[in-house]
Specification:
The complex is a heterodimer of chains A (273) and B (269).
Chain A: H1 2-29, H2 38-45, H3 47-79, H4 83-97, H5 101-112, H6 117-124, H7 138-161, H8 166-174, H9 179-207, H10 211-217, H11 224-235, H12 238-262
Chain B: H1 3-32, H2 49-56, H3 58-90, H4 97-109, H5 112-126, H6 132-157, H7 160-168, H8 173-201, H9 205-210, H10 217-225, H11 232-268
Helix pairs in contact in B: 1-11, 2-3, 2-11, 3-4, 3-6, 3-8, 3-10, 4-6, 6-8, 7-8, 8-11
The chains are: A mainly alpha (273), B mainly alpha (269).
Chain lengths: 273, 269
């Protein structure tokens, strides 16, 4: 009797502020000026959409890969520490993780700008004579997004690595495997569920990025999220914006489903193959 | 490759990663105490000028206090709604609890821009835009999942027999909740509250679509960044970082206190 009452406020809030807005997106994307298929027609015929969508996928993929490559050894290091010291190292990763995305993006604009730290250092070192342009380049977007998502990669990987049975790696070593073989044939396969889980999370989170590409990439490096904002606030084309939001949502759901299928549930928590 | 060399290499890699994560933030501190109009490096003179602007200039200080106010309201709502639904999901075996949990954490996975767009189009039609109530409830949607995740995890770890013992010994459902369940959940609720506060305090995307003329601190910063580079932004950013550090400290303290208690209870049992 109590349970429905306890859940009622959440259901009411989510109905009005989450479910109905989503229904509104569906309704508007299928009811533009050009009839029920106006949204779909816009998606098919817009060269900008195809380009931006492809760029968003590529950006999400490369950011995910860079975060995994940078994060894996760092997570190995943290997981290899004794319990008493692990907290301190984790705090160093949590510190930036807790800081606002807007603030972290802003700090990159101070580092990469014309008068920024990077240009000042390059000129001081005599590498260049005049300021170089780093802002509004793919490099700037990658630096910003990797810095924001890297803690997510490390925290997810550490979670899996500390649950591992370290005795198996020791057993492989005792039985004569070289450190490299023990890593490649024992440690790495055991962490595979963590790698896939981290990759899934990073890819999904990168797909929806708005602030970082807008501030560091400028108009030439837009993502789907930036294009949605542009259609609403400047073109006033809600049908196009809604259609793109549905595509973004469908891509997100497909990514979740694909990786769920790639990693069966029993393997998601470090089970043996 | 001896294991020692591997350990040193991993340590160096970790240091490099931490440097990459932290140096842009560390760089912010000297810049915010810079006296000049242009944010150039290295600063030539030091002053508290931009902090004075942040706390005295009406457009900045109003934005800061508004963000704090909204954050506190969102936190209170999220803790109440989130804890109640976590109880319904974990303890009371509500039919469809799994589905409800999935819905409750969906705002963490659905891109913020999609939620923001849906809210904007619906509320434009209902004439609900530019209202503080709308903004608080909209922030609560993205803040409440954190409370639900943290509190239901704590509830699953909590030994139900203690609650049952309280009931058997004659406590009513409300008394047993207040005297047994709530004290045990306190660390999780505190951590969830911190997450919820910063989900609201740091939000830009939903605010950008729903708030209209109501300017929160992130929106004030955003509007400034798109026009000119006012050094007050550096001071505001520093204040936001400092607040996050304090929040993280409280949440971590609560979490480790909760873990310690769990360990001693298990050791006693």
């Amino acid at each position: 009797m109590v349970a429905p009452l306890l859940a009622a406020p959440l259901l009411l809030l989510f109905a009005i502020f989450f479910v109905v807005p989503f229904v509104e997106i569906m309704r508007i994307s299928f009811s533009g000026k050009g009839g029920a298929w106006a949204g779909a027609t816009w998606l098919m015929s817009s060269p900008v959409f195809a380009l931006v969508f492809l760029n968003t996928l590529k950006l999400a993929l490369s950011v995910t890969l860079i975060c995994l490559i940078l994060g894996y050894p760092a997570a190995c290091f943290i997981a290899g520490q004794p319990d008493s010291r692990r907290g301190v190292y984790l705090a160093l990763v949590l510190l930036p993780f807790w800081t606002s995305v807007l603030v972290r993006t802003y700090t990159w604009s101070l580092v990469l700008g014309r008068e920024g730290l990077l240009n000042a250092s390059l000129i001081w070192l005599g590498i260049t004579n005049e300021p170089q342009r780093f802002m509004f380049t793919p490099l700037a977007v990658h630096l910003g997004m990797v810095q924001i998502l890297l803690p997510v990669a490390i925290l997810t990987l550490v979670g899996v690595m500390t649950e591992l049975d370290a005795g198996l790696v020791r057993a492989a070593r005792v039985l004569g495997a070289s450190p490299w073989r023990a890593f490649w044939h024992v440690y790495l396969p055991m962490t595979k569920p963590g790698i896939v889980a981290a990759a899934m999370l990073l890819f999904i989170l990168s797909l929806g990025f708005y602030i970082t590409p807008a501030l560091l990439g400028g108009p030439r490096h837009r993502t789907i999220a930036n294009l949605i904002d542009l259609q609403v606030h400047q073109m006033n084309d809600w049908t196009a914006a809604s259609a793109m939001a549905l595509v973004l949502l469908a891509t997100t759901i497909a990514a979740v489903a694909l990786l769920r299928w790639l990693v069966p549930e029993r393997n998601l928590y470090g089970g043996a193959r | 490759m001896s294991p020692r060399i591997v350990r040193i290499a991993l340590g160096l890699w970790f240091c490099a990663v931490v440097f990459f994560l932290l140096f842009p933030l560390a760089f912010l501190i000297p810049l915010s105490f810079n006296a000049s109009e242009i944010l150039s490096f290295p600063p030539t003179a030091w002053s508290l000028r931009w902090y004075r602007v942040l706390f005295t200039d009406a457009s900045w200080s109003n934005a800061l206090w508004l963000s704090v106010k909204i954050g506190v309201l969102v936190t209170i709502l999220s803790v109440a709604i989130g804890t109640a639904s976590a109880l319904a999901i974990v303890r009371h075996r509500l039919p469809g609890a799994g589905l409800l949990y999935g819905l409750a954490i969906a705002p963490l996975i659905v891109p913020g821009i999609v939620i923001a767009l849906g809210m904007f189009m619906l509320f434009a039609r209902l004439k609900w835009l530019e209202s503080l109530t709308t903004l608080v409830l909209a922030h609560t949607v993205v803040a409440v999942p954190y409370v639900i995740v943290v509190v239901s995890a704590a509830l699953r770890n909590l030994d139900e027999t203690i609650e049952r013992a309280a009931r058997v010994l004659g406590a009513g459902p409300w008394r047993s909740f207040m005297l047994v369940t709530l004290p045990a959940l306190r660390p999780a609720i505190l951590a969830g509250a911190m997450f919820a506060f910063f989900a609201s305090f740091d939000d830009l995307i939903i605010t950008l679509f729903v708030s209209g003329a109501i300017e929160t601190l992130p929106l004030r910063i955003w509007n400034d960044l798109n026009l000119r580079l006012d050094p007050t932004v550096a001071a505001a950013a520093c204040v936001m970082v400092a607040m996050s550090m304090i929040g993280l400290g409280i949440a971590e303290f609560a979490r480790s206190a909760g873990l310690r208690r769990l360990r001693t209870e298990q050791a006693d049992g």
